[in-house]
Amino acid sequence: MPDSPGILNFHCLPYKRIELICDGYIFQLFKKKVIRQACEYFKCRGMRFAVKKTDFSRMIRWDTGLVALFAVFGLVGSLSGQPEIKLPEYFGPPLELPLQLSGNFGELRSNHFHAGLDLRTGGVEGKKVFAAADGYVARILVSAYGYGKALYIQHPNGYMTVYAHLQRFNTAIEQYVRQEQYKRESFEVDLYPEPGMLRVKKGEVIALSGNTGGSAGPHLHFEIRDQGSERAINPMAFGYEVPDSKPPEFLQCMVYELDEDFLEIQRRILPVRRVSPSVYRLEKDTVSIPVLAGLGVETVDYKDGSGFKFGVYTLSLYVDGELIYKFSADAVRFDETRYLNAHIDYDYRVNSGRNVHQLFVLPGNRLDVYTAVVNRGLISLTPDSVVRVQIVASDISGNVSELAFWARGVSETINAQPQQRRGYFGFNDEIVIKDDHFVFLAESGTFYRPVRVNFSVKPLEPESLSAQVHFRDESVPFHKFATLRMKVNGSHPNASKFVLVNTVGNKRNVVTGTLEGDWYTAKIRSFGKYWVEADLKVPTIVPQNIPAGGNMRHQALVRFRISDDLSGIKSYRMEINGQWVLAEFDGKTGLLYHIFETPPAGRKMEIKVKVTDGVGNIGEYRTEIIR
């Protein structure tokens, strides 16, 4: 095929090698992983490319959206005695430390897939964080929750890198952020500097690693995004490597008996046994399964020299050699990530705390992480027919494990009886349930499969503001918010302080809403128990390091613990001598602190802290110190 500008050519070489030629670079590739890196490297530069192999009778062309070119060739291993030629890497290391992971891309988290890599920092804060490539700072986030302090860097190739849970930014960025914080009189800011205002070079120190926001320990959360920052890409596809020779492990297998509407009739756990490091079998070589069934597996992966548990990269299901389902953790869109609750066995997670990948796709699951699906991944058998089932798990380093068994269809499948189906709503139905004490409204697409809304009502008591409604199916996941309207009892002198309280098991959640007449309306995203309360308590403010007498000449900061027991903290403010000062808040510890900006001079200072909760209750604390 003749060369042409912007086209990447692959030529087949002896010994099943592939030669890749573009812009003066010549690479000889042997491994799947390196071919994937090659595709990503040239895709970064916005180039179209074509593929040619001598035993292919047709030309195959992709646009820049496809990364998984290596799957076409199925190459395994490398040519003995031949060195692997490494690609120049567009993105460099984001940390001064060797790459060690505590979390990988695509892990199953609460309500979302993990969108990046969690990079270890030796259990401490303050490690240098580098810009992975040239670019400019497109966004700066400072929050007491979530990503904490985070940087978003836009690169010329269209990708964006994200660095989260930072301790502090470099001098130029820190000065810009502080200026904006004082302008807004707010610690928490979400800033979008003008493009090119804060330029960075590859390898430049942009921040120090930390533990801010929702971080459970010091580390750097690192992401690579595309599509206008709305899609996270697996960073390991860009040439990052972690020593890994360990294949994924299968912990257990599930069989789900389903009906044609994906109503689960029963679930059965099949224990697995390992017969070699990468081969797993069931306790029985042949198992009976319903004639219409779905499968699920619990898996875990480890890396060399690490005790951390990781998620798998791909899961494939074969029936008699035919691929009917494949999950790949290549990328995930942020507007789709909550569909994780349709991907996993959500009920099992709620009740056991364990994650099971369902190897079938529920009707309400819109995830774009499945590269092969036949019959939504369901196994359909005739009575007494026998098929060979193979489940293959892989990590991104190419380590593969297999769980295989024979499955026999059973004729005595339990079918859902008509009375069992009564009261179910289709997953695409709009749901309206009215009662004297409440109204429940859910729009189409709120649930992933047909759902029955079971509820009971505990009647009003004289001192109560509302009845207590218990939606009993607490392990049914919501995708969208539903609306709940609760009838409120009697007069409403504290109507502005009303909240909707929800308990699921031992967890309590509180949401605020609006009162219209005698009905309090709020948005909810789970079943459980609901009732209306009035939040009349002000937030609590407790000094942590102010000594008796207030002498703080030897203190570098002043620190308070703030909390609210119902509607939660909405805002906070600290003043010294009547002027707003920058006070940082850590949402996970409740600590609010100000680092003094001037040296001690033995002066009196009046410190005032004001905290407002979700319904407007205000707590205040005043004191004088000497510094």
Automatic annotation (TrEMBL):
Residue span, M23ase beta-sheet core domain: 113-181, 199-229
Gene Ontology MF terms: metalloendopeptidase activity
Pfam family, one: Peptidase_M23
Name this protein carries in UniProt: Peptidase M23-like protein
